[in-house]
């Protein structure tokens, strides 16, 4: 016998109490899974136990059957309702009457059944408790992997999780590179071994040839036992360098793609045999989840590194852009200065005013607090200063040409930039002799007229904090050239005014006429100015509401960003969108919609501060710029106030309307470079609020930003995947439900991602639909399917066609052309469409389906039952098959069975009316297949018959897979039960003819046995 039952001797003793004193009882049973157990009373010898075991091995004729030897011995064996066997042997000190023997035997069967049921319940409870602890541990590991903990804290907490599953006080994790034969101790905790692990240290295999851990990694299979026994097994000599020996040592490898990449080891220095097979299996299971957690942690670090690199690249790009902007602004300032100098030659009434205004222009470009213009006299002997502003030399008198810096520039005919040291050097060489106060830095450039130097324009600084450079020299030289031209023009104008002074009287009358004409021109100019102002206002404001428009808002946002950078004052942007505004336009007209927009804008303006900006961006979208706020709370309070004000009822076109809105909030952050980025993030937050139920606000946060970056990266990967042909076809078989004969396959789209592995459509289909790239991926799938059809074979292949393809008028022609070019049989191709594709454009869909059917390509209606599912439209289309949605198939077994049966029966009736067949999708259990067959469904598809794979399945492999599917289904059911045991039915009753003489003793014995089992 293999072991004793959980009740020990209680079961046999309970049965013995109903027999005469001195009786011996042996009960043994074998479960449906082959496990042998027994219970016997004290004093039972081995031969009697052997007789009971031999009796158990015989095959009883039927459930509940037994044999009775008569006399002083009772023997019986029978089948229990769960498929297990039981046998009982009782030796009596005296004969018992037949009725009493039968009554006792019936009672024994009942008590044995109750005993086994209680044992199994207890075992299931223990298994469920272990399963719950394991599940909580795995959830804990998954949560830790997604947390922001550092690696040391992460591994320490994982150690704590493992300690909750088994004895793991001495625990370590090692990573292994099987190619380089190196390892790293990622985590090490041991109460007896003082070794301190360095996660960054790479240890070569030849450095630790006597390490039991290295032997485990090279062995590649779990090891359990004492350290000495394992070294003998693996041929590893003892080495005290690697720590003390343990009484029990358990290590399991971690695998990635069938390659050993690390291991987890637990040790017990005190108790031998403390780890069993269950602990080994449990640690192996947990090890893979720990590896997954480590991989997720590594992926997160890689993502953070990638984000940091991209952020640095953006910073460099932003720096270059800022430099370019500064250069452009400088060029614009210079251009404005030149235009203004040219204008001054006309508008300045005197040369003195012209010089003063030129000084103002130069001051806008560089430091010109000390500025003068020097000109040569007509005879060239004197130097005159028609204009001079200086903080030290208030007056500059004209003088004879001498050796000053000004004369030096005139003699050389080129600019001079000199600091205090250069000026002293020129003085020491006798080339110049300074006049006036000594400057810290001096810059002078010559003024030319007809290639001759006629003067100098100079600026100087008396402070060490202000110096000029070559760029300032270049700028002043460029400006001086235009000043020379303007000065010559102004001098010529002044001479012309002087020369024609005597003509003033003669032209007085003409001047009056010109004055009248000029008045008319001024009136026209005024009208034009007013028109320009009106156009400017219209260009910066919304015509309907009078609010600032997008252009003006972006300008103010850019100004706000500049102020925030300078003054470090926060601001926020609120992006507002009216909910269900299209319903107002469609129901009561656009004029009513305009009234609602005007009323909404009025209400929004009434809720904000006087210095806040409310703008209409277009349609039903508004934006609010609030500056100088203390934090996010101010913006959220304003958003709540706007929502309350907007939510008050109003009358539009004679109807009472209750407007509502969704608001997105984006707070200022230094990463924003312009207003467009702020509006973009506020818009994203608004869509988050609208998706959460409308009539509320949401704040843009880092999660949204990271999600946007993930979507951007995935879209780029999707484009590369299309260009790199990374999409493949997986085929799932479709079979007959009665004999499992193969009739075809459904081709399913898969993406073999270079980093994330195999991706299902649900992970990228939404992004593909939004970007329009999913159509290109679909055509790659169609090409692979057509190529597969061209190879020949039996059965058809169906492909899914989205409504987007049906909106394209050339879809059918393109598909048929692809089939023809590949030389495939179009009759072996099916297209699966949804009800949405049919009803989107009925005439186009009907033409397309008829065209495909005429060439042999039939159509199947996918996910039937989840849409309109009405005969009123279905009979108009050439549909070959209805595919029953897997939600209804799953509901055929369980609490929702009545509703699902009714739906499937209705679908079958509809299909029968149309003369088409049906396919049940998502068949995973034998019970679902049986229910579908009973309801009249002919064909089925699901995991019960085969999982999707890269290759077409044969009929033989489908049959083998079906048998494996049944076994897998049983295993899943047993695992879900918690112990692998099937629950028994109701207890077997006493036979009607039994003698009730000992019924009180029987009930008491049963109660005692049950209480013992519970304890």
From TrEMBL:
Listed InterPro entries: Biofilm_reg_signaling, EAL_dom, EAL_sf, GAF, GAF-like_dom_sf, GGDEF_dom, Nucleotide_cyclase, Rev_trsase/Diguanyl_cyclase
Pfam short name (any one): EAL
Domain of life: Bacteria
Residue ranges of coiled coil: none
Residue ranges occupied by any GGDEF domain in the UniProt entry: 569-702
Record Gene3D superfamilies: 3.30.450.40, 3.30.70.270, EAL domain
Residue ranges of domain EAL in the record: 711-962
Record-given protein name: Diguanylate cyclase domain protein
Species of provenance: Lysobacter antibioticus
């Amino acid at each position: 016998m293999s072991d004793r039952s959980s009740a020990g001797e209680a079961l046999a003793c309970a049965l013995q109490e109903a027999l005469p004193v001195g009786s011996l009882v042996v009960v043994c049973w074998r479960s449906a899974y082959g496990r042998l157990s027994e219970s016997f009373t004290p004093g039972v010898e081995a031969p009697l136990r052997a007789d009971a075991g031999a009796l158990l091995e015989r095959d009883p004729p039927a459930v509940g059957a037994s044999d009775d030897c008569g006399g002083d011995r009772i023997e019986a064996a029978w089948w229990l309702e769960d498929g297990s066997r039981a046998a009982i042997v009782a030796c009596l000190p005296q004969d018992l009457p037949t009725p009493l023997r039968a009554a006792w035997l019936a009672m024994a069967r009942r008590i044995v059944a109750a005993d086994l049921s209680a044992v199994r319940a207890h075992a299931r409870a223990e298994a469920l408790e272990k399963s719950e602890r394991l599940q909580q541990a795995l959830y804990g590991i998954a949560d830790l992997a997604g947390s922001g903990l550092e690696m040391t804290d992460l591994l320490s907490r994982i150690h704590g999780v493992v300690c909750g599953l088994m004895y793991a006080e001495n625990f370590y994790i090692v990573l292994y590179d099987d190619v380089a034969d190196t390892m790293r101790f990622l985590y090490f905790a041991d109460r007896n071994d003082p070794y301190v692990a360095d996660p960054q240290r790479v240890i070569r295999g030849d450095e630790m040839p006597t390490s039991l851990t290295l032997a485990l990694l090279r062995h590649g299979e779990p090891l359990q036992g004492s350290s000495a026994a394992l070294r003998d097994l693996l041929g590893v000599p003892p080495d005290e360098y690697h720590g003390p020996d343990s009484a029990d040592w358990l290590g399991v490898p971690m695998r990635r793609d069938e390659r050993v990449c690390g291991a987890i080891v637990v040790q017990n220095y005190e108790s031998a045999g403390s780890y069993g097979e269950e602990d080994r299996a449990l640690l192996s299971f947990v090890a893979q989840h720990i590896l997954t957690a480590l991989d997720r942690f590594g992926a997160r670090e890689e993502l953070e590194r990638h984000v940091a690199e991209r952020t640095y690249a953006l910073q460099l790009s932003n720096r270059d852009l800022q430099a370019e902007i500064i250069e452009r602004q400088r060029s614009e300032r210079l251009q404005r200065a030149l235009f203004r100098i040219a204008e001054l030659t006309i508008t300045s009434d005197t040369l003195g005013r012209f010089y003063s205004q030129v000084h103002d222009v130069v001051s806008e470009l560089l430091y010109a607090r000390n500025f003068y213009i020097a000109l040569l006299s007509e005879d060239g002997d004197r130097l005159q200063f028609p204009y001079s502003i200086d903080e030290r030399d208030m007056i500059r008198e004209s003088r004879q040409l001498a050796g000053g810096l000004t004369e030096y520039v005139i003699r050389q005919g080129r600019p001079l930039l000199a600091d205090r040291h250069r000026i002293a050097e020129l003085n020491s060489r006798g080339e110049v002799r300074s006049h006036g106060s000594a400057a810290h830095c001096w810059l002078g450039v010559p003024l030319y007229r007809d290639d001759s130097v006629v003067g100098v324009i100079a600026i100087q600084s008396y402070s060490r904090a202000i110096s000029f450079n070559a760029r300032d020299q270049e700028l002043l030289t460029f400006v001086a050239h235009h000043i020379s031209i303007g000065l010559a023009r102004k001098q010529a104008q002044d001479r012309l005014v002087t020369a024609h002074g005597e003509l003033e009287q003669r032209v007085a009358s003409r001047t009056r006429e010109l004055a009248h004409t000029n008045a008319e021109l001024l009136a026209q100019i005024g009208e034009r100015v007013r028109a320009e102002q009106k156009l400017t206002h219209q260009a910066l404001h919304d015509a309907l509401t009078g609010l600032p428009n997008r252009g003006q808002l972006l300008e103010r946002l850019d100004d706000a960003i500049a102020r925030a950078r300078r003054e470090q004052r926060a601001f926020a942007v609120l992006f507002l969108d009216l909910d269900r505004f299209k319903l107002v336009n469609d129901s009561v007209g656009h004029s009513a919609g305009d009234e609602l927009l005007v009323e909404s804008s009025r209400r929004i303006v009434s809720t904000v501060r006087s210095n806040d900006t409310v703008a209409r961006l277009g349609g039903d979208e508004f934006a609010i710029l609030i500056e100088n706020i203390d934090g996010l709370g101010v913006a959220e309070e304003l958003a709540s106030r706007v929502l309350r004000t907007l939510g008050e009822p109003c009358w539009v076109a004679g109807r009472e309307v209750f407007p509502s809105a969704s608001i997105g909030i984006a707070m200022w952050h230094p990463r924003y470079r312009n207003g467009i980025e702020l509006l973009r993030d506020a818009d994203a937050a608004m869509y988050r609020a609208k998706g959460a139920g409308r009539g509320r606000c949401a704040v843009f946060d880092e999660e949204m930003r990271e999600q946007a970056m993930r979507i951007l990266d995935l879209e780029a990967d999707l484009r590369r995947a299309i260009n790199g042909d990374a999409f493949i076809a997986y085929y799932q078989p479709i079979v007959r439900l009665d004999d499992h004969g193969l009739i075809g396959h459904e081709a399913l789209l898969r993406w073999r991602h270079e980093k994330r592995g195999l991706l299902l459509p649900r992970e990228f289909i939404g992004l593909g639909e939004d970007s329009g790239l999913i159509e290109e991926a679909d055509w790659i799938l169609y090409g692979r399917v057509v190529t597969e059809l061209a190879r020949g074979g039996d059965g058809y292949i169906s492909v899914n066609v989205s409504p987007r393809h049906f909106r394209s008028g050339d879809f059918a022609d393109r598909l048929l052309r692809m089939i023809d070019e590949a030389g495939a049989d179009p009759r072996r191709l099916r297209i699966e469409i949804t009800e949405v594709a049919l009803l989107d454009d009925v005439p186009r869909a009907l033409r397309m389906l008829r065209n495909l059917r005429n060439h042999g390509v039939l159509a199947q209606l996918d996910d039937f039952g989840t849409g309109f599912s009405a005969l009123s439209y279905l009979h108009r289309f050439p549909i070959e098959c209805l595919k029953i949605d897997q939600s209804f198939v799953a509901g055929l077994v369980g609490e929702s069975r009545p509703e699902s049966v009714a739906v499937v029966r209705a679908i079958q009736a509809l299909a029968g009316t149309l003369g088409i067949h049906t396919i049940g999708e998502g068949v995973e259990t034998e019970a679902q297949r049986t229910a579908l067959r009973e309801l009249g469904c002919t064909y089925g598809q699901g995991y019960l018959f085969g999982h999707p794979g890269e290759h077409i399945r044969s009929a033989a492999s489908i049959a083998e897979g079906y048998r494996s599917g049944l076994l897998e289904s049983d295993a899943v059911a047993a695992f879900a039960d918690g112990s692998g045991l099937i629950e028994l039915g109701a207890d077997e009753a006493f036979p009607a003819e039994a003698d009730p003489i000992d019924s009180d003793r029987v009930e008491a014995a049963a109660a005692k046995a049950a209480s013992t089992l519970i304890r």
